[in-house]
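Propose amino acids for all 117 sites.
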């Protein structure tokens, strides 16, 4: 076995161990969890449908993605074909719903938080 093959094999082993020790959550993971809890299709959330359930899912996605603090609002918005201001607005709407204790949104937030932790 040559030196390059040994280095690549060791790098793969280390990367696999790190992945097992720490759970890395990316934007697609957040979108998948939100869609499964709200029970909507992921592609429709990325689309331009303006029905309430898709708007809720999109806003929840923005809320949790911005909460990760690893991605810019521009990156978060682009993942669902929106701009940064839409991402910030959506996250703000969820915060407002939580403040007024909206039961539906609060239940969604609790369920999603349990899964993402």
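Proposal:
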């Amino acid at each position: 076995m040559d030196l390059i093959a040994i280095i690549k094999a060791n790098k793969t082993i280390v990367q696999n161990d790190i992945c097992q020790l720490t759970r890395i959550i990316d934007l697609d993971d957040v979108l998948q969890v939100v869609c499964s809890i709200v029970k909507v299709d992921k592609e429709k959330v990325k689309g331009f449908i303006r029905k309430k359930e898709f708007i809720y899912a999109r806003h929840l996605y923005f809320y949790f993605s911005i909460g990760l603090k690893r991605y810019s609002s521009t990156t978060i918005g682009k993942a669902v074909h929106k701009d940064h201001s839409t991402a910030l607005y959506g996250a703000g709407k969820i915060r407002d719903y939580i403040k007024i204790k909206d039961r539906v949104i609060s239940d969604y937030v609790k369920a999603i938080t349990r899964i993402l932790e």
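The first helix runs from residue 3 to 21. The two ends are 41 Å apart (CA to CA).
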